[in-house]
Amino acid sequence: MFQLTRAPIELAPLLSVVQRDSDGAITSFLGVVRNHARGRRVIRMEYHAYEPMAAALIEQVGRELEDRWSVKAAIVHRLGCLEIGEASVAIVVASPHRAEAFAACRHAIERIKAEAPIWKKEFYEDGSTWVEQEPGGSHSMPGG
Amino acid sequence: MFQLTRAPIELAPLLSVVQRDSDGAITSFLGVVRNHARGRRVIRMEYHAYEPMAAALIEQVGRELEDRWSVKAAIVHRLGCLEIGEASVAIVVASPHRAEAFAACRHAIERIKAEAPIWKKEFYEDGSTWVEQEPGGSHSMPGG
Amino acid sequence: MRVHVYFFASHRDVVGTDQIDLDLSDGCNVAGVQSLLAERYPRLAPLLGCSRASVNEQYCGSDRLLADGDRIAFIPPVSGG
Amino acid sequence: MRVHVYFFASHRDVVGTDQIDLDLSDGCNVAGVQSLLAERYPRLAPLLGCSRASVNEQYCGSDRLLADGDRIAFIPPVSGG
Lengths: 144, 144, 81, 81
Hints:
The complex is a heterotetramer, with two copies of chain A (about 140 residues) and two copies of chain C (about 80 residues). With about 140 residues, chain A is of the alpha+beta class. Chain A has one domain (about 1-125): Molybdopterin biosynthesis MoaE subunit (Aldehyde Oxidoreductase, domain 3). Chain A contains four helices and ten strands. Chain A has helices at about 10-20, 50-70, 100-115, 135-140, and strands at about 1-5, 25-30, 35, 40, 45-50, 70-80, 80-85, 85-95, 120-125, 125-130. With about 80 residues, chain C is an alpha+beta fold. Chain C has a five-stranded mixed beta sheet with strand order 2-1-5-3-4, covered by helices on one side. The longest helix of chain C is centred in the middle third of the chain and has 11 residues, at about 30-40. Chains A and B meet through α1, β2 and α3 of A and α1, β2 and α3 of B.
């Protein structure tokens, strides 16, 4: 399952999508909206995408994981308005062994953060701004 | 929440235990019972512990994560009889940033696998055996 | 030939619309579209410089030649995940 | 002094019980208990060699001195997680 959604993300259904009887390890990553960024208090977040391209990229990343590590993966990215604490992205990876499950999960979020045409707009008490970090800027101050 | 349990492990309650408004990343690891090991077909698994020592060790590992990476963690290890696909251990780590969440989660499962006085007994169609791997043996052929 | 150009995030705010069509002469490439946009929307020009081009939902270089009906976007630095 | 010794996993199967009490002379250490057990349960002896000792639920070295009431275990290679 590789998709964009406007509904709240639930982890449990993703676990059952990926898990096979031969798997001994399941890793997951949730990106969640936090209450501060760049020194400012954030009150909510809006996620916006170039939808067909973002959907294709997420599927491509999922296939990469499955080809490179022989894992089974699910990736869901949420769009629209999110409150503090809500998940913006979920990545779930099942594998016979844990090393591959951790490596693939980490790879997926790095690829999505670097490549997926998705933008967040941060809302503060007195305004809002699109977050459009320079590539590389996110390495010295990584967000979620 | 750092504990041993005989009940099936659910991930969702652990997520809500660890998540703070300042967190942007939540990683989790589930160890699950798989249907083969050491070249044999496994039909179920039994987990057994030196309970007071295992409980103390799990709590100690959780505190280590919180001290070293400033994350919030939950660790639950299940005991008793488990069917294929059931989770034997869950580790959930919340952090403002993802690098710490991944590092802490991985550290926790490595520490538990190396140190926690817990043993699994594998059941096959024609018998059973305690798994008592030599330390280091688990590195060349890591289990879940 | 006619191509479709899509705008996202801050670019959309600057341009005031999410999509325009452009009529191009044959042989035009992505860099040519970028120049046209920079001329038509001066406030967009500096933003285009730190964007990545895509054609038909695939990242591409600025020398990519265009065909009738192509969908073009200049992707601002992304912040999903 | 009297100490309590606990057995787990394959050790428990070999010994046939999960716990015994031992009466020791003062000054006895963990290595002394290991020798006593190896003598009393010959099939346990090789298993003790690849175990880690614990006293009162803490891993310790074999030179650890024991006190009345201590809880001792020889932890077989673990396989949890």
